[in-house]
UniProtKB/TrEMBL annotation, chains A, B:
Keywords: Lyase, Magnesium, Metal-binding. It comes from Nonomuraea typhae. This is L-fuconate dehydratase. It is an enzyme of class 4 (lyase). It comes from the Bacteria. The keyword Metal-binding applies. Its cofactor is Mg(2+). Its EC number is 4.2.1.68. SMART domains: MR_MLE (SM00922).
Length: 402, 402
């Protein structure tokens, strides 16, 4: 589905009078980056000259701009732009408070956390009072979980062996490396050719053994019936989950697929537009793993709503990552979830892709297949000045010969 | 929900070597118009220098651009931009063939019509073969229905009495005018204050009588429980439908509301992002009226898919209109539906708002509460040159003193 990505980002820098900076971005895969830039510019009135303290109010103001809502509401280009700005505000906040974002969030009171969330359209599944009760119930163990994260990190899985087109030798070698590096799970892309999927899954099982979690990812390739047929043809290999079997908009389709491929669990989320669609996926019992993305829905605030919804329905969050900087951001959300929301690592892993981390000032660190808990202040969102200069369009060095 | 609209449009003009022009636009309510402009510019490679004949292929190419899909897929700003370009291509086509669009479409063969549709993600509800069978079944009466449209037009309803804040005298006068003008239905905005809704509905019933269709429209104001409670408080007035009771993304919410307010029918669509969400609303039995919009989903092509889905499920299409030029466009789709898809006017009305038609070269004409079938070639999409010149941002006259 994504044959020719050209990883890009519309990049936001917010500056305050006290000398702090907040960085954020909308990740794109090439064309359309200038559309994101225009959308971010449309949000300038919400941040320029404003106080950056009350991030619940700023977020809700942006989402509820009555004219900009017409372009969504709460989906697509405008919503990704809101995400970039909201995430930059959180990077700024975390730097000012001298905390990595996950810890900043995890030290907030249940009441403060609930105030960050827009509960509109959620009350049939989750009320503010229920959210508050859940957060309070998770308060007692916070300190121990912070300590555990600092000691052991958060479990990760890797997609590196999984790309289409690898021959058996390469697949074997990459599976072996994933095991050696301590990753908790791998993932295979599927859906182009069933015989090739069978060959690769056979090889991966040979290397990883019968019990190691191996997920499959279809990147929205199928309609409902073909998803059920294809996944059932791979069922004997014990897929840990099937990811994005169909359109991210198709709640009922995911529910029908979940029913049709049982006991294979269904996962989705990287393209799910907002908390309202996640709510329905959970209500319909359509997903067994929820794969939130740090830069598609309305930033940290909406992702807190999604973490609360997942916890309410008892569905583990296994975040999507990759792209540019998505690993850097999403680790903070997963760690906050562990400390203050779900309180659990059970069935939970963060995706890891070993790509483009060299451009970030505070890149993710993987040790023994775990994300090491970030310790520097901020959201790990800031790119290195020399990377920004080289890749800025159209003046940067990398564009000179194009 | 839309307290301060400033009706705007990102306007597209396509020109061919043979001297024809196609016009289209993305309607906005103010801020964000420049975001739409950037999104339309991102689609230039799909039209500049291309042959404008195969509109099935051009549409599918735009929707399936793998990089631009990342910004959706098929929703929000990018999808509205595709709509503007696709609709401009259809305006061009209809002018070249010397036909009003509704007639051009209605003269196409079932096979040609099916080729225009992207059936991806629809096959669990509608296959190409089923669509073909439906279109073939509707072929016999096409000529009679064309004649009937030319003689009698297509029934319309008006929202003019329905805005919040009118006192009883004004509401009474506008209801009376709507009846005198022959409109088949009126619509009241609701959801701000229940006592005020009761007062206005009481007055409207007094003027219009017990059986005249009076719909209510909440513009997405409610969560599920409050929608059910509010609508049931108005049930004794016999609402013809309740429109947009909650988020347009909430299929399960609409289904729960439909269940909770039965027998009051539920309607939605002006903000529904694409055919995949419409498919689910129909599968879930969540809507009794489908209100497609001409300029939000992927243009004429995707609206044909939506008309076919509605016909398959036996749900009448009562299009959304208003804004800038939405009446002009959508009448063509409803008339095509009548001639070649559903073959029926039963339970069907097109919304009418008496606003801004003076800017169009081929404005809608209402006679005795019916849309008169357009006879000029094209999609009625072209604005008057002097209107474009005066409103062009930032150089136009109307911006001079702002």
């Amino acid at each position: 589905m994504n044959p020719d990505p050209d990883y890009s980002a519309a990049y936001v820098v917010l500056r305050t009078d006290d000398g702090h900076e907040g960085h954020g971005f909308a990740f794109t895969i090439g064309r359309g980056n200038d559309v994101q830039t225009a959308a971010i510019a449309a949000l300038e009135p919400y941040v320029i000259g404003r106080d950056a303290e009350d991030l619940g109010t700023l977020y809700k103001e942006m989402v509820n701009d009555s004219q900009l809502r017409w372009l969504g509401p709460e989906k697509g280009v405008m919503h990704m732009a809101i995400s970039a700005v909201v995430n930059a505000l959180w990077d700024l906040r975390a730097k000012r408070y001298g905390r990595p974002l996950w810890l900043l969030l995890a030290e907030m009171s249940p009441e403060e956390i609930v105030d960050l969330v827009d509960f509109r359209y959620l009350s049939d599944a989750l009320t503010p009072d229920e959210a508050l009760a859940m957060l309070r119930a998770a308060e007692p163990g916070r300190r121990e979980r912070v300590a555990r994260l600092r000691e052991q990190g958060y479990p990760a899985y890797t997609t590196s062996p999984g790309w289409l087109g690898y021959d058996d030798d390469k697949l074997r070698r990459l599976c072996k490396e994933a095991l050696d590096q301590g990753f908790k799970q791998i993932k295979l892309k599927v859906g182009a050719d069933l015989q090739d999927d069978i060959r690769r899954f056979t090889t991966a099982r040979e290397v990883c053994g019968p019990d190691f979690p191996i997920a499959i990812d279809a990147n929205q390739r199928w309609d409902v019936a073909s998803a059920i047929e294809w996944v059932n043809a791979l069922r004997r290999f014990g897929p840990h989950w099937v990811e994005e079997p169909t359109s991210p908009d198709d709640v009922l389709g995911h529910a029908a697929i979940a029913e049709g491929v049982r006991p294979v669990p269904v996962a989705t989320g990287e393209h799910v537009q907002n908390r309202i669609v996640f709510k329905q996926l959970l209500q319909a019992g359509a997903i067994s793993y929820l794969q939130l993305d740090s830069a598609r829905v309305g930033g940290v605030n909406e992702n807190i709503a999604i973490l609360l919804l997942a916890a309410k329905f008892g569905v583990p969050v296994c975040p999507h990552a990759g792209g540019v900087g998505l690993c850097e951001l999403v680790q903070h959300l997963a760690m906050f979830d562990y400390v203050a929301v779900s309180g659990s690592l059970e069935g939970r892993v963060i995706e890891y892709v070993d790509h483009l981390h060299e451009h970030f000032l505070d890149p993710v660190v993987i040790e023994n297949g775990n994300y090491v808990a970030p310790s520097l202040p901020g959201f790990s969102a800031q790119m290195r000045p020399e990377s920004i200069a080289a890749h800025a369009y159209p003046g940067g060095d990398v564009w000179r010969d194009q």
